[in-house]
Specification:
Length: 339
């Protein structure tokens, strides 16, 4: 039989020989078996660390040990929105003695492959920002693993969801522009097939309704939320319209960057006069010299709450019953320029 360990890998047998104990004692000590004394456990762990022994996870689980891996699946990592989630979740896992296995997937086929690999690695649980339509294979695998939906929500997956108040965030941002005298406002956001896209657009429209404004004054441009080209092209089209809006509200972090970049590059007379309510308060937006209302979300708090909730359930053995957590809205409006 060929060993699954690579060349030069230290084995449990070598750890056992260094201490003069049985291989089974090493395995039980590392699994924190109550039949092994505290002193022996300490000696085994010290020897394992000294020799560079890496325990075989499937073997440890067969001896009754628990997995200490948690999978995190995000659609993107190119902005501080998702980077903050990854960082907060990693720190949460570290503090609880778990390790984060990070994955990027925003395509159903890639998502299925990554979920399959996380399952084969015997992760204890998975936190996932799901694609709008996960493949049957993805659904089947996740049904056998503790998992939590983050930000986006898809029917058929576990009824456990941690999200932000997207609707209130966009309502407040749009209302701030209306309060400053803007009536002809454009919304550039994600397509409605994303649950987040639906609620953010609803918040934009709610602001118009509450202000008693004619909805015909609003312009809605929907596309892939991570497609910066879409954001730039939509901005250019708005500037070239017969009656361009006086303000733009964005519904995704990447779209905000694209909108600001397109306005800065445009020679249209209305470009620098345009007020923007940005989804996200990215440090990278600080260069923008025009009028900007930044909508900040409690992303770090959300990630920590999600990670802590899942780890507590996994550590205690409590079942993952239906649960919903909506991070309280914490909006800060950073305004540059006038208007």
């Amino acid at each position: 039989m060929t060993s699954s360990r690579g060349p030069g890998m230290v084995t449990a047998k070598q750890v056992a020989e260094s201490l003069g104990v049985a291989v089974s004692t090493v395995g039980r000590a590392l699994a924190d078996d109550p039949r092994i004394s505290a002193r022996t456990k300490e000696l085994v762990r010290e020897a394992a660390a000294r020799l560079g022994y890496v325990e075989n996870l499937p073997a440890r689980m067969m001896r009754g040990g628990a997995s200490r891996l948690i999978g995190l699946m995000l659609p993107d990592i190119r902005n501080s929105f998702y980077a903050t989630i990854a960082d907060a979740m990693s720190r949460c896992c570290d503090e609880a003695g778990y390790q984060l296995a990070f994955s990027i997937a925003d395509d159903p086929a890639v998502e299925a492959r990554h979920v399959r690999e996380l399952a084969s690695a015997r992760v204890a649980g998975i936190v996932i920002v799901p694609t709008p339509e996960p493949l049957p294979e993805t659904r089947a695998i996740l049904s056998r693993f503790p998992h939590v939906q983050l930000l986006r929500r898809v029917e058929g997956l576990a009824p456990i969801w941690f999200g932000i108040d997207d609707r209130e965030c966009l309502r407040a941002g749009t209302s701030a522009l209306i309060a400053r005298g803007h009536k002809r406002i454009a919304y550039i956001g994600g397509v409605a097939r994303y649950s987040t896209g639906v609620t953010r657009l609803a918040g934009f429209r709610q602001a118009y309704a509450e202000a008693g404004l004619d909805p015909a004054l609003a312009t809605v441009c929907l596309g892939p939320p991570a497609d910066t080209r879409f954001g730039a092209e939509a901005t250019t089209a708005l500037l070239e319209a017969d009656e361009p809006p006086s303000a733009i509200v964005t519904g995704a972090v990447q779209l905000t960057g694209a909108v600001l970049g397109a306005l800065a590059a445009s020679r249209h007379p209305h470009a620098r006069k345009m007020a923007v309510a940005s989804f996200g308060d990215e440090p990278a937006f600080g260069w923008w010299p025009g009028r900007l209302v930044a909508m900040a979300m409690p992303i770090e708090e959300l990630a920590q709450s999600c990670g802590s909730w899942l780890i507590e359930r996994l550590s205690s053995g409590r079942p993952l019953e239906a649960h919903e957590y909506l991070a309280p809205t914490k909006l800060s409006f950073r305004v540059s320029g006038r208007g």
